[in-house]
Amino acid sequence: MIPSVLVQFKIEDKRLEFIYKETITGRKKNYFYSVLTKPEYAKEIKIFNSSNFFKNKRQYSFYEFYRKKRQLSKNEFIKMSISSFIGKIGVIITMFWVFLEMVRGKYNISNFTSTFLAITSLETTFVNIVNLLSLNYNCLLSLDYILKFFEANETYKKHDKKLSKNNAFHCLEFQNVWFKYPNSSNYSLKNINFKLSRGEKILMIGENGSGKSTIIKLLLRFYEPTEGKILVNGINITEYSDYELYSFYTAIFQDYNKYSISLKENILLGDRENSQRLKGVLKNSQADGFVHNLKHGLDTNLTKIFDPDGIELSTGQMQKIAIARALYKTAPVLIMDEPTASVDGKSERELYELLKILDDRAVLCISHQPYMVESANEIILLNQGSIVVKGTHKELLNKSKEYKLFFDKNFGNDQTLNKKE
Asked: What is the pTM of this model?
């Protein structure tokens, strides 16, 4: 029994180790399958004739995974066969000894039969015990991985300090924040300092790679600052639970999500329905025009995955739904990461005009469009992870060569804005 238990424990060790090590291979296999089947990849795959390329990538991941899986199963079979054989040898020797004793006249046939049944029953009991011990050992090993997962996320758990649930938003502040990504020796952010109060609007600008999106990631606690603090209402965001922290935020992202549920549910995302507020955000996002023309209105399913009567909205239309989703949530801080990248110029101007009347929300916006510069209380120009200069549009045009150069390069062709200057 003991050898069987040890072998089973060793097998469970190897199984869990395999699952852990081959997670990335399995994810690659599933990823390339999604590339080949999801509609958003279809255009480029057809244009670049890359279907065979991705099929081969998936096949390689598939065969690599199952080659290792087959080898693992083969090793398990050999070990279990040897273990079982050793156990059977003990049974055979015992039964042979009983048989010899019966031949010598010490046992009769009934004694032999009773002994055989007893040994067989005992063997079955041992096998069940081994299987049960193996199952419990597997559970303990799995629990170890689960505990490691929770330990890795320990920093995101709620701090012991009790925070007021009715704590209204007053300000958000970055204090001497430095940050470098894991396994990187270079800082992506260097000594970032700014403060966003309720009702204020900050516009962050800079070339690609200047650190704008990294600031958003830190704000959402996807990463922790390497040095410095991020405060909401004067309290370090590490002291908030995720639920409390995210209750302060709503957001419009460039890489928004589209869900295969109704259009209304895409906006509410589980929030309680308020028909007046819903009507207002559809109007403010300029989505009401095309929504009213839909056969099933707000009950129309986005995508045809589950509903043949569903629709596929254009990129611009879907971004308006994403804008409506952000405006519907009554959070005090609006985060905007290139919110108008896919809408037309008229809708873009109307959205930025809307920002002027959002007096009760704090707005943190990343944009390469010029319409925000006039309504922003502060503009922050970033370069290689550092703040180059900050101030209002007029102040920066007068005092900062770097800002004027950036403005002329990126916004200089906008005639509407130039006429106002």
From this structure: 0.70
User: Mean pLDDT across the stretch 147-159?
Assistant: 58
Our measurement of the distance from residue 415's CA atom to the centroid of its chain's CA atoms, rounded to an integer in Å, reads: 41
Burial 25-41 (b: 16+ CB within 10 A, else e): beebbeebeebbeeeee
**pLDDT tens string 232-250:** 999 999 999 888 899 999 9
User: What is the phi/psi pair of residue 164, to 5°?
Assistant: -75, 125
For the chain, what percent of residues have pLDDT higher than 70? 85
b/e sequence 299-331, b meaning 16+ C-beta within 10 Å? ebbbeeeeeeebbebeeebbbbbbbbbbbbbeb
Closest residue by Cα to residue 266 from 188, 322, 314, 336: 322
Residue whose token pair is 């985060």: 335
pLDDT at 162 over 50: no
- β-pairing, 235-236 vs 227-232, is antiparallel
Rounded Cα–Cα distance for residues 378 and 176 (Å) = 18
235-236: strand order across its sheet: 189-197, 171-179, 227-232, 235-236
Q: Choose among 149, 177, 162, 332: nearest CA to 240.
A: 162
Element at 333 (helix H, strand E): strand 333-337
Beta strands in 201-278 (DSSP E): 201-206, 227-232, 235-236, 249-253
> Rounded to a whole number, what is the distance in angstroms from the first to the last CA of the chain?
88
**167 in Cβ contact with 241 (< 8 Å):** no
How wide is the angle at C-alpha 254 spanned by C-alphas 373 and 311, nearest 5°?
130
Judging by DSSP bridges, how do beta strands 171-179 and 189-197 pair with one another? antiparallel
pLDDT band at residue 317 under the 50/70/90 scheme: confident
Who's near 383: CB < 8 A, 6+ residues apart? 206, 207, 210, 402
Q: Residue 371 in contact with residue 209, Cβ under 8 Å?
A: no
- Looking at residue 25, its amino acid is T
Beta strands at 201-206 and 378-383: parallel, antiparallel or unpaired: parallel
> Which stretch, 18-32, 224-238, 279-293, has highest mean pLDDT?
224-238
DSSP 343-408: S-HHHHHHHHHHHTT-TTSEEEEE-S-GGGTTT-SEEEEEETTEEEEEE-HHHHHHH-HHHHHHHH
19-48 pLDDT, tens digit each: 777 778 888 888 888 888 887 788 788 877
Q: What is each CA distance from 10 to 15, 135, 371, in whole angstroms?
A: 9, 12, 65
Closest CA to 364 of 330, 393, 395, 338: 338
